[in-house]
Amino acid sequence: MAFSFFKNPTHGGNGSVAWQKALQIVLALAGFALFFYLVCSMGIGTILAQLAHFGWWFAAICLLGATWLFFQTLAWRAMQREHFAGVSLFFLFSVKFISDALNTLLPSANLGGETARLYFTSRFLSKKEALAGVMVDKTFEYAGGIPFMIVGFLIAWEGGFFPKALLLPALLCLAVTLAGILVFAGFQARGMHSVLARATGFVPPLRRLVEAKEKQIHALEQELRQLYAAPWPRILAAWGFHFLARVTGVFEVILVLRVLHEPVGFFQAFFITAMVTGVNTVFFLMPGQWGVAEGSHQFIVHSMGYPPLIGLSLGIIKRMRKLAFAAVGLLMYFCYRGKMADPAAFLKKDHD
Asked: Is residue 109 predicted with pLDDT exceeding 60?
């Protein structure tokens, strides 16, 4: 749907898309293989015994996860307040919920769900408005993770519980995340057309594709400039909501480990969440972070002196919450999709 913005079969788009899909499938299979290896290494029965502790506590974990998505919805709305005037917060939250569900299920490196955001907002946003809004929102989401990681690392260092085994991974995660954000933000700020023209100069099919889409790219650039020129209070609000979203993850760690009878304090949970944030950001290409998220929880928590089973159980219970959200999100997806008067409206609508 929406990320086909740059796709054009007449200019070699099919080969590029086929290669991307093949890579996504390979990464997805690798993630699933790692996940099942981790589970089998601990024993399925042992894992199930750990999960049996939760019961109704799982509802509280889901509530924290929903709070995370609610803060992300507020951040998204803050940057496009004028465009979302008259649009109910519940609808935007539902779209964000659907987006998160599809990101969990689809082998699309956390991009499949974003097409849903573009599709369901096509009734009141043009193509360039929707795409620019999602790009800026994703930039702020990952940018919000940088100070979150820094604070978490400093807390652990000052508190004397920063495991030496995690020092190098922490610095690498922070460096890679910072570099990625700078590249992505610079790509938007310097003008995508000029960057794409230089990058594709030695690949004629891609160069022709960029030339064919020149008008649309310049329109998108203009929309991005307008969003980044928003008043500072609005920008800080968007960043702050994304930061608060990650803080809810801290309370989720506290709750899960308390249920597992391995309680941690707020600062220790902050550090665990900060480390997982860095790992997930570095491995953003892994669909749903399958295997990576569970493995990172196991390694980080074990490095802090807890049994490996506790860290893996933490990662798995969070995975279960995501899968529960994915099931609800799919139902919401089909419900809202059925209400769309014209499924092709997004492709037809443009205010250039």
From this structure: no
